[in-house]
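Lab notebook, bench 4. Still working through the backlog of constructs that have no structural model yet. Next entry is a single chain of 864 residues. Request: give me the C-alpha cells for it.
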Amino acid sequence: MCKTRIESAAKKAGAKTAIYSIDLQTLTLETDKTSSDDILKKVAEAGHDNEKFKASDTTYEGLPGCCHYDRDLQPSQAETHHEHHAGAAVSTKKENEFYVRGNCASCKARIEKASKDAGADTAEWNAEKQTVTLHFDSSKTSSDKILKAIADAGHDNEKYRAADAVYNGLPGCCLYDRDFTFGEANPKVHYEEGAKHEDHKDNETSSPKEDHSQHEKNIDGVVVTGSKAATALSKKEAGLVFNIDKKELLKAACCNLSESFETNATVDVSFSNAVTGTKQLKMLGLDQKYTSLTKEQLPEIRGLASAYGLNFIPGRWIESIQLTKGGSTVTNGYESITGQINTELLKNAKTPETSLNLFSDFNGRAEINITNVSPINDKWSQTFLLHGNGTFGNTDMNHDGFLDRPKGTQINAAYLLNYNDLEKSGFGSHFGINFIRDERTAGQIGFDKKLGQDKQPFYGVGIDISRFQVWNKTGYVFKGKPYQSIGWMNQYVYHQQDSFFGLRNYAGQQHTYYSNLIFESIIGNTNHKYKAGASFLYDGYKETYLMDDIRRNEIVPGIFAEYTLTGLKYTLVAGSRVDFHNLAGTQFTPRLNFKYDFTPQTILRLSAGRGFRTANVFAESQQYFASNRAINILPNGGNIYGLKPEIAWNYGASLQQEFKLFGRKSSIIADFFRTDFQDQVLVDLDKSPQQLTFYNLDGKSFANSFQTQWDFMPVKNLEVRLAYKYYDVQADYIGGRREVPFMAKHRGFVNLAYSTNKNDNGGFWSFDTTLNWVGKQRLPDTSTNPAEFQLPTYSESYAVLNAQISRNFNKKIRAYVGGENLTSYYQKNAIVDFKNPFGSYFDGGMVYAPIMKANFYVGLDVTF
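Model written out:
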C-alpha cells in the first residue's frame, strides 16, 4: 500500500515514471518539467516523510497501521539525495531498460539477483511495466550477458527465452503468462513488495541505486522507512507458527529459555517444585515433555535434561524462536505431540558486533553474558557465546526455613562457525560446540553441602550437571535448481547429573547421537514439493536411584517423506514416517497440515497427527523427588521401566482474522486443539500422598485446549495483546476419571507494550507490562494425611503482574529495571510439613503458584 500510494502521488505531481523500492527505501523518478521538490512535497502530503519534506502528523496518523513506518530512521550517507540534469557528464556506465516477464516479489528478487551476478551494478525490475532497468559498466559486461543470465534464472525477456525445465521449476506464484506481448500488461501479475517466496529469500545486502543518465531527465532517490513485528504469526506456513524475534525477549528479564515466554500467551510457565525452584513449560494443557524442544532444529531438552534444560539456553544467546502449535513436520522426528519450540542462536552479522549484558536482582542473583558475532570473510562467520550466573542470597520469603530458590553457579560457553557459499558453489555449513557446568544447592538454610547427608540435621538438595554437545549441519543446493537441495544434520550430546534430595540419591548419564538426512525437490514445478530422508537416534541411559541401577539403550533408525501442494489459496502438507524402535517396536507417524486463505486477511488452518515417545519416569518427575513419596512403578509388559511407550493423536483448527481498528492493523486468532492418548504413562499423585505411582493408561486420557488472542494498537506506539485460554484435561486413573492436577481450566492474559519515538541518536524509552490470571486448579488428594497436612481440593485463583522499563540511550547502550510478581501473590503452604523434612508427610512438589513475593531487577546492555 505504501508503494502504491507513493508512486501514485509522484505521478499525479507530474512524474513520467515513479518506482518505489521498499528494500532500498528509495523512489526513482523520471521527469520532464516538474521539479523534484514539487513531487516530494506531494509525496509528503500523501503521508510519507522524505529527505526534503515531512508529512503532517494528522496525515501520518490517518495511514493504515501496517504503513506506520519509523519516522526517526535517518538515511545513511549512501542514501543522500542526488539528481542529474541535462548536460551532466556521461560516465562509462549505461542505463538500459529491457522487457522481462515476471509476476511477484519473488520474481523481482530473482531477476535483480541474476542481473547483479552477471555484472550489473544495479538492477530494478518493475512489475507494472514488466521491465528491468540496468546500470552496468560496458567494459566489464553487456546487456546480452545479463539478459541471458535472467533467462537462465527462469524469466523470458525480449532477447532470450527461459528453458522450459527452469521455468517449470519456479514457485507456483512465479509462473507468469509466457504468451502476452512485451509492452502489454501481465495478466497474472500479483506483485507485493516484500512478499518474497520462502524458497527465494534474498539475503543480499543491497545499496541504493547510483543513476548515471545519458538522457534529459531527472533521477532522484527518496528515503522512506519501515518496521518489523517482534512476534508475528506466519501467514505462509500451513501450520500455526509464531516467529518470536529477539526484540520480544527484551521485554522481560529473560535470563534463560524458561523466562522467554512471559509476554507470550501460548506457553504457560510455572514453578514445579518449592525446594528446587525449577520451572516447567506447558502447552495445549499438557506438560513440557509432550512438546518437542529443539535448538538449531536439533533435539535439545529431552531425556535427562527434561527437568533443568530450560536453564541451559541463556536468553541473550537467542536470535529467534519458532513456536509451532500442534503436530510439527515429520522431518523433525516423531516425539512432538503438542507442538515444537525451536531456538535459533545468534549467528548473523554483517559487521563484527560484541555485546555485554549485566543483570542482577534484589535477591542475590547475578548474571553476565558476552556475545560476539563477526564475519571472517565473505563466506565464513563465527559466534562466541559466554554466560555465567550465580545465586548467592538466602531467599526465604515465606519464612518456612527453606530456600525459595537454589544457590549455585553456572558456566556456559558455546562457539559457532558458519560457512555460506550457497550462491556460488551451492554449499553451506554450520558447526557448533557447547559446554555447561551447573551446580545448585537447595533445602533448609542451615544445610552445608560439604558435610555428609547423614551427618547433619538439615534437609538439603544438591544438583550437579555437566553437559557437552557438538553438532553440524551441512547443505547443498543443486546448480541451476534452487528448489532442489540436500542437507545432513548430526549431533552428539553427553549429559551427566549427580544429585541428592535429602537422603534420596539420583544420578544419571546420557549419551545421544542424532543424525538426519533430508532431500528436497519438486514434482514438475514448485506447486508440488516433496522431502524425503532418513534419520537415526541413539540414546544410551544409565541411571542410579537409591540402590537401583537402571540401564537401557534406545536405537531408532527411521525413514520419512513429506509432500507439499500449493494452490492459489491453499497449502497442504502431508507427511509420514516409520521408525524402527528397538524397544518400542515399529511406529508409524502420519501428520497433516492444511491452510486455506479465504482472503489475505482471513486464514483457516487444520491439522492432525500422531506422535510417540518413551517416558523417562525418573528424570521427568524430579519435581516430586524433594518429598518423601516412595516411587512405585506398576509394569505393563513394556521394555522401558516395564512400561509401554506413550502414543497420542493431536487435532487442531484455527482461524486468523486481520482487520483495521483505530486506523491500524489488528488481528484475532482463535484455535482449538484436542489431544487423545492411545497410550500414556500416568503419574499418579492421588493413590497415596506417600507414593509416586507410574503405570500405563487403561482407558481414556485427553486434553482440550481453546485459545483466543487479540492484538491491536489503540494509539501510536502502544501495542495491546489480550488472550483467554480454556483447558479441559482429564485421564482415567486407577481411582477413576479425574482432572489432571495443577492445570487451571481458565486463564487470562494481558500484555501492554509502549515505546517512545526515537531521537536523533536512536534513543527511546520502552514500557512493558504483563498480567497473567490463573484460575483454580485441582490439587492431588491428601485426604489420608493428618488434618494439618491436608490440601484443599482446589487451589485459589491468582494473578501475577510483571513490568519492565528500559531506556535505549542510543544504538549501543540500554539500561532496564523491572519487577516480577508485583502482585506479591505467593503460595503460603508451598511445602507440606516443612518442620519435619524427614517425616512421612513432607512434600515440596505440591506447587500451583509462585513461591516468591515481588522481585526487582536491573540490567545493562552495551554493544561494541
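Notes after review: Residues 75-94, 192-227 have pLDDT under 50 and may be disordered. The radius of gyration is 30 Å. Flag for follow-up if needed.
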